[in-house]
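Sample intake sheet
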Amino acid sequence: MPVTEFLERNARLYGDEVALVELNPEEKDTRRVTWKEYDLIEPSVFEPYRREITWSVFEEKANRFANLLIARGVKKGDRVAIIMYNCLEWLPIYFGILKSGAIAVPFNFRYDAEEILYCAELAEVQIIVFGPEFIGRIETNADKLSKGRLLIYVGDNCPRFAESYRELVADCSSVKPDVEITEEDFGAIYFSSGTTGFPKAILHKHQSLTQAAEMEQKHHSTGREDTFLCIPPLYHTGAKFHWMGSLVAGSRAVLLKGAKPDVILSAISSEHCTIVWLLVPWAQDILDALDRGELKLSDYQLDQWRLMHIGAQPVPPSLIKRWKEYFPKHDYDTNYGLSESTGPGCVHLGVENIHKVGAIGVPGYRWECKIVGEDDSEVKQGEVGELCVKGPGVMTCYYNNPEATAEVLKDGWLYTGDMAMQDEDGFIFLVDRKKDVIVSGGENIYPVQIENFIRTFDKVKDVAVIGMPDHRLGEKTAAIIEIKEGYTCTREEIEEFCLGLARYKRPKEIFFEEIPRNATGKIEKPALRKRHGADMLVAQENKG
């Protein structure tokens, strides 16, 4: 069934219960006073900005937007883009698109003006829905973007080149539109992360969306009494489909703006959150703040918090060991996935398998996995090869890109580009991205293994390992290291610590600087290669 039926069921059965909360602890709620009064009132009087909607209002808003789209000529299979920060309007707009029969196309909120135009043209979108933070970026190419497209603005003070969402939906019917949707209809286009160049458009059927939702609920046993805290951006498959576990369960979720350690713990405490999905940097920041004594767990109500899970990147085992020291009663899970597999969960560790921390896990609900060599045959257990996955969440194709599709889809298997190995118990360990593997003196070196080792040094906050050209070895390893706040560290200390690595794995170059990560927490290694001249040197080596 299409995922929209879960929303309709929740509105029918749990209509008066809260579905979504928007919380911004760093913004003060001024809705009850005039600006003149605001200047005369002490800031401490105001509460953090907080809004909420029930399941019935969620359904009503989705229906209104769906009927608006239909009234403006949107047909089944048309594309409607969203570029907004997380807010209470985001998900009702997304579901309104689905209910109209159109294809939802979320844009990365980090896209600049040219990337927005590029993705709009790549996905052939007919409508762009955008928030106030994107007025400037949309206006830059407004003439091109508005040519044959409707621009809908969500917020106050609608710009001249767009139409107001509030005004448009005000008179639209809240009755479910008469549009038949099946699992075989196309439902969404997501974009690859773009860390390797311009993003590709990933087309999914409704079957993928429903699979991801049901899998998330099953993997984490999300129940009616749970409250899920959602911090990452909703444009990303990870955030949205982790939230959809709450959709399937008919339970409450909180959209939190802000990722500072105190902000996260305050939200968990005040909103009684039970399930929290974190990115590695956020978990690291919480632990560092606790280590420094800047946070005290006794200041928060956290007894109800039962599950912390992490995805979007390899998770250092040392991080989880530290986490369990502070939160010994927490269940822990990690999730692996790609936008091409409808986000996280095609491989997952499982809360019962914490003894296997370091592994990404086993095939997820309704998924199959295999690890293959260069000849596409399965490698032996314990050998490294490319991870391939197969299941009902695999993408249909890269939209309008048959060549790229053929490279990664073979006989129903999605070739992930990730190098992995399987241990004797059947657990899969991610070794590295295929393109990130370093070949030095004929040896394959997997940066993740070195990164996990260096992260165990008590002065290191974050680390990335890249390959740099070397005339003798072909490539040499370089470690970019970010030191914890309040600490100092020398190259000699790192070199001494790395004596614990095999000689060929020890970094030959060491740089101390901040590690760049994208909105979903993945290390932007192409940016590091460019910063350190590795890409230029590669080109020179190839030319020579």
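Comment: The chain has three domains: 4-258, 306-433, 440-543. The mean pLDDT is 88.
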